[in-house]
């Protein structure tokens, strides 16, 4: 889809999806704070006026990047597993095993965009960090709901703590993302996934 932005009184056309993909790569590789508007416009092949006209400001562009990522297979693999797998164990096993192959995939920056893109932000950009924190916490709410349902169905022992288990798996997933950023490959991450799954307290069928 073509979009135009004003430059010196004349519109300049550019491919919006391509520009957004370049912005995603930069934010994912460097993080929100370390990515400047100048670097974004250079990578996107547009001038600052076009960026502001098409996307708003840097924060608005980042939100669109995150929302687009969240609708892609890279962003939906956890929700897909929770929806499609018939058992909670099957869902979490699939999530961790998929993460082990997705996070170190060389076709994109390592790790998970929503985990690593805003770990260090200035006070004036704190809302960016809070935005991603809220997204991650929303995942934990979904995890906990699935685990509570599993306990009610007898997939987990009556004494199992769904909130603690949700936090545990959330922490493992975040740790796997960071290990991928630090250079861990799919074999190491797959081993981590299996070790984490060994802590599952209920049925594994």
From TrEMBL:
Pfam families: TetR_C_13, TetR_N. The lineage of its organism: Bacteria, Bacillati, Actinomycetota, Actinomycetes, Streptosporangiales. It comes from Nonomuraea indica. Keywords: DNA-binding, Transcription, Transcription regulation. Coiled coil: none annotated. Gene3D superfamilies: Homeodomain-like, Tetracycline Repressor, domain 2. Residues 36-55 bind DNA. Residues 13-73 form the HTH tetR-type domain. SUPFAM superfamilies: Homeodomain-like, Tetracyclin repressor-like, C-terminal domain. This is TetR/AcrR family transcriptional regulator. It comes from the Bacteria. InterPro entries: Homeodomain-like_sf, HTH_TetR, Tet_transcr_reg_TetR-rel_C_sf, TetR_C.
């Amino acid at each position: 889809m073509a979009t135009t932005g004003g430059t010196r009184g004349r519109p300049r056309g550019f491919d919006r999806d391509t520009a957004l993909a370049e912005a995603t790569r930069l934010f994912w590789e460097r993080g929100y704070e370390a990515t400047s508007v100048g670097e974004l416009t250079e990578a996107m092949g547009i001038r600052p006026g076009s960026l502001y006209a098409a996307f708003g400001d840097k924060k608005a562009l980042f939100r669109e990047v995150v929302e687009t990522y969240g609708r892609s297979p890279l962003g939906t693999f956890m929700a897909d597993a929770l929806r499609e797998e018939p058992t909670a164990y099957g869902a979490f096993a699939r999530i961790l095993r998929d993460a082990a192959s997705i996070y170190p995939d060389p076709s994109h920056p390592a790790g998970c965009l929503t985990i690593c893109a805003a770990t260090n932000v200035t006070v004036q950009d704190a809302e960016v960090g809070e935005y991603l924190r809220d997204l991650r916490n929303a995942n934990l709410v979904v995890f906990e709901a699935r685990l509570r349902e599993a306990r009610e169905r007898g997939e987990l022992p009556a004494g199992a703590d769904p909130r603690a288990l949700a936090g545990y798996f959330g922490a493992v997933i975040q740790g796997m993302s960071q290990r991928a950023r630090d250079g861990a490959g799919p074999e190491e991450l797959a081993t981590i996934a299996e070790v984490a799954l060994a802590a599952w307290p209920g049925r594994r069928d």
